[in-house]
Design a protein that fits this description.
The chain is α/β, with parallel strands linked by helices. The protein folds into two domains: about 210 residues, HUPs (Rossmann fold), CATH 3.40.50; about 180 residues, Translation factors (Elongation Factor Tu (Ef-tu), domain 3), CATH 2.40.30.10. The chain contains eight helices and 18 strands.
């Protein structure tokens, strides 16, 4: 077992769950001076599904864990930062018809920004969380470089959620669970008698929980009746028939492959009504309440200006599957800045556009217009606002917000 040679102070984000509890115990065993810090980031209950409000229980279990492991316990209210940097961003993105990932923003703006600042105020040298990922520091050209690596548990790897962290944020981050599987963590919690050993994992939006999205969004966004239009034309859209485009592909070809499908009201037939196009996302199948089809209906496009949802029947509908996407220049983020592509360059990476999606082979093309990501195989449900993260083997190299 690794023992910390110089006793440094680590502030662990205790959430009241089993993962952060075991992380705190592991760090104490490794010789660190450990303290627990609970973040209160949300107070409202509007939109929460019944029985999903656990804030009071969370802080109670976090404090019980600190007492059990023999570490100091602290509390901080970061709800103002969370509302401004995460929730307001969510509302803004949904209003534009985009699909944000608040968990990625929560890590970048709250856990490793606002929380880290509070940890420093408490004298912390390091910030630790219960994420299933790994960090290592290597020397490249005599410069220390922090690598963000996937956790060894393929079913629990959470490196995608940290894809927007910077070198500076990673430099004082510790992830004690990265080398363990979830069953091993559960077993440790039971063996140690931690009060969180049998608690269920949290679900839903970071620090908010499971929500009924339309109800939650109606705090700031009005419901508006609009048309649901089915697109029955199954004409195959332009694409390269298998494989990746050449490294010197023209910008015009890349733009064509990365363009979202655009429909007009006259392109299909009206089959129902909805309560607001901004409540839906590409790839969604629930919430339209329309039956009578042999295969499920999916949202294939939304128009928040005209308040229209376009749908297609079945997983194989061509409007549901695309070859590529575009990330605008200002949204491209490199964790490994030494591997950044220059304009006109291209490189093969493995890419995912959502948590737990298996990594997909793709080629990245850096152009003046931004970063084009063209996949080897068609991808289902690419939606603007999502984060695309690219990997080399098990290392997160960079990420960006999908523009189209």
């Amino acid at each position: 077992m690794y023992i910390c040679a110089v006793k440094k102070r680590v502030i662990v984000g205790l959430s009241g769950g089993v993962d952060s509890s075991v992380a705190a115990w592991l760090l104490k065993e490794q010789g660190y001076d450990v303290a627990g810090l609970f973040m209160q980031n949300w107070h409202d209950t509007a939109g929460l599904l019944q029985g999903e409000c656990h804030a009071e229980d969370d802080v109670m279990f976090a404090e019980m864990t600190a007492k059990k492991t023999g570490i100091p316990f602290h509390f901080v209210d970061l709800s103002a930062d969370y509302r401004q940097n995460v929730v307001d961003y969510m509302f803004s993105e949904y209003e534009k018809g985009r699909t944000p990932n608040p968990d990625v923003l929560c890590n970048r703006e709250i856990k490793f920004q606002s929380f880290a600042a509070e940890a420093r105020r408490l004298g912390g040298d390091w910030v630790a969380t219960g994420h299933y990922c790994r960090r290592e520091t290597v020397s490249i050209n005599n410069t220390p470089v922090n690598r963000l690596l996937a956790g060894i548990d393929g079913n629990k790897d959470q490196s995608y959620f940290l894809c927007q962290l910077s070198q500076e944020q990673l430099s004082n981050a510790l992830f004690p669970l990265g080398g363990y599987t979830k069953p091993e963590v559960r077993a440790m919690a039971h063996e140690l008698g931690l009060p969180t050993a049998q608690r269920k994992d949290s679900q839903g939006i970071c620090f908010i929980g499971k929500i009924h999205l339309p109800t939650f969004l109606q705090q700031k966004m009005d419901a508006r009746r609009g048309k649901i239009i089915e697109i029955t034309d199954r004409t195959v859209f332009p694409e390269i028939a298998g494989g990746l485009p050449p490294s010197d592909a023209s910008t015009g070809m890349l733009a064509l492959l990365a363009s979202p499908y655009v429909y007009a009201p006259e392109s299909g037939k009206v089959i129902g009504e909805h309560n607001g196009a901004h409540f839906y996302t590409v790839g969604q199948r629930k919430g339209m309440n329309i039956g009578g089809y042999a295969e499920p209906l999916f949202v294939i496009a939304t128009d928040t200006v005209r308040n229209i949802i376009y749908t297609g029947e079945g997983h194989s509908h061509p409007g549901l599957n695309r070859k590529g996407l575009l990330i605008k220049p200002g949204e491209i983020h490199w964790i490994r800045r030494d591997m950044e592509l220059g304009e006109g360059e291209s490189h093969d990476f493995m890419v995912r556009i959502r948590y737990r999606q298996p990594l997909q082979k793709a080629r990245l093309f850096r152009r003046k217009e931004g970063m084009f990501i063209i996949f080897d195989e068609l991808q289902r449900g690419i939606a603007p606002g999502q984060f695309a993260a690219w990997y080399s083997n098990d290392e997160v190299i960079g990420s960006g917000v999908i523009d189209s």
